[in-house]
Prior knowledge:
Chain A is of the alpha/beta class. Chain A has 10 helices and 13 strands. Chain B has one domain.
Amino acid sequence: MTVIEVRNLRKTYGDTVAVRDVSLTVEAGEIFGILGPNGAGKTTTVESIAGLREPDGGSIRVLGRDPGDRSLRDDVGVQLQESALPDKLTVREALELYASFYPEPGDWRALTRELGLGEKLGTSYAKLSGGQKQRLSIALALIGNPKIAILDELTTGLDPQARRDTWDLIEGVRAAGVTIVLVTHFMEEAERLCDRLAVIDRGEVVALDTPAGLIAGMDTEQRIRFRPSAPVDDALLLARPEVRTVRRHGSQIEVVGTGNLLHAVTSVLAVNEIIAADLRIEQASLDDAFVQLTGRSVKE
Amino acid sequence: MRVFAKLTLTELKLFLREPISAFFVLLFPTVLVVILGSIPSFREPSADIGGRRVIDLYVSIAVVLTLAMVAIQVAPAVLATYRERGVLRRLATTPVSPLKLLGAQLAMFGITAIASTALVLAVGRLAFDVALASQFGGFVLAFLLTTAGILAIGLFVAAVVPTGKAGSSVGTILFFPLMFFAGLWTPREVMPGVLQRIADFTPLGAGQRALGDAMTGSWPNLLSATVLVGYVAVFGFLAVRTFRWS
């Protein structure tokens, strides 16, 4: 069952086109990821789905309704990238207040335990760390027992342990039947959590598939890293048709190419009586797929 | 209604957690009455002001001071901060309309203004024998008109300033001239004629005059009432037209 349907979404701010043409559908019960570099239009897309922005073109249906329909607010929980609370509001007050907004709120005590906020209930918002603010923001998005949760940059600002705990929580929420739309620029997060991913670049969907499908859809490219026992001239390696690029990271050489790349590299080394130490063959990752799709790293 | 009550209560708690604004809104007007009332000559009838005592005048001025603190010192800063920090936007994603939060804030402003005014009147009556508003209906009307007039200006400021800090600066800049014409430094009764005439057309000058009328037993004069209604209409309209949620 389709719970979110976006067709040819377009949104401009003055002369700037934030979203050029985005179409996607999200199915009930899945974790759907929206991945893209900064400024690609991810946030504008989810804010339009959440009914916070009026699209300039295209159409959006959420649970069969228009995003502006106020009845959707009971069913859709939103965690905004920059959402603040008043400085002097305590964690407990924020949770109790937001719980009172919904017809059937969840158990905020259980949520705070899962999010590791149990000991911060009496702390005012201003005194929370960045990670704690983020976790409170997630709790507030989930407190109304939503059918759909839209989470923008879920784990930004969290330390690695808190990030993994949050992923466990999100998987638990999905297991309870909630559909999740996740905006992220963490590849590891997208690969671990998402059933399907839309890669957005320059306001357009450039790919939409499972994480494994995105990786498999790339040109089959291999990557070999090693530390040579003596200097190697790049040209010797590049002379082989299998080799596409040669890059150096300190004393390490990284060769990228196709076909029987390993054989090509080792024979060049053997001829020149060079031994390759720490030799590793790397498989393509979602990171590589992303770079290939958008022409840049997600961190740029 | 339950949500509205909870929001209002939350806003009240947050207000009380800002000790400086809470002091200036809730206690400072009464402190002013106590200080002025402690000066013996201010408790003597004076021919310059028509046989009344200075302290009699300052009770209504302290009431206006309360309203000025709430409406142009506190309101623009709080509302603009909420917008700047995305509190209103965050609320827009929940079943509760941000309008309800605005309503709760207005309720909180009203409750604090009424509490502070009651304290001013009680201390004026008990400590310095200042007559309670003998025309009570007139006092309530003057109080409501003054509150609405100055709050409309405060809301307009909140609508146009970019940040909470800017809101509080603009509020402070407006505060001094407006309170000057309300007679904080020189009561209307001893102002030169020209200044009196100007004061009649300022929101707090008109408000203070209307409140003063009610304290001495008459209904607010028509000019002050008309001026205040004018401020409500003009600034209320501008505030609604220019207000942004994010």
